[in-house]
Amino acid sequence: MPTQVYTRYERARIIGARALQISMGAPLLISTSRIDPLEIAIEEFNADIIPITVKRR
């Protein structure tokens, strides 16, 4: 579980952005047997290793 609590919109944005990066050829941050970029991004999010931060006002 991520250490910071995200809203469902922030979670969707982070996972979507990371899935796009993966689909464009970015290196994976975890070892996985999955092929779908969205599933890989969800795994990375749940492992709390996605290098994306959320700025709030």
Automatic annotation (TrEMBL):
<dbReference type="GO" id="GO:0042797">
    <property type="term" value="P:tRNA transcription by RNA polymerase III"/>
</dbReference>
<dbReference type="InterPro" id="IPR036161">
    <property type="entry name" value="RPB6/omega-like_sf"/>
</dbReference>
<dbReference type="GO" id="GO:0006360">
    <property type="term" value="P:transcription by RNA polymerase I"/>
</dbReference>
<dbReference type="Pfam" id="PF01192">
    <property type="entry name" value="RNA_pol_Rpb6"/>
</dbReference>
<dbReference type="GO" id="GO:0006366">
    <property type="term" value="P:transcription by RNA polymerase II"/>
</dbReference>
<dbReference type="InterPro" id="IPR020708">
    <property type="entry name" value="DNA-dir_RNA_polK_14-18kDa_CS"/>
</dbReference>
<keyword id="KW-0240">DNA-directed RNA polymerase</keyword>
<dbReference type="InterPro" id="IPR006110">
    <property type="entry name" value="Pol_omega/Rpo6/RPB6"/>
</dbReference>
<dbReference type="GO" id="GO:0000428">
    <property type="term" value="C:DNA-directed RNA polymerase complex"/>
</dbReference>
<dbReference type="GO" id="GO:0003899">
    <property type="term" value="F:DNA-directed RNA polymerase activity"/>
</dbReference>
<dbReference type="GO" id="GO:0003677">
    <property type="term" value="F:DNA binding"/>
</dbReference>
<keyword id="KW-0804">Transcription</keyword>
<dbReference type="InterPro" id="IPR006111">
    <property type="entry name" value="Rpo6/Rpb6"/>
</dbReference>
<protein>
    <submittedName>
        <fullName>RNA polymerase Rpb6</fullName>
    </submittedName>
</protein>
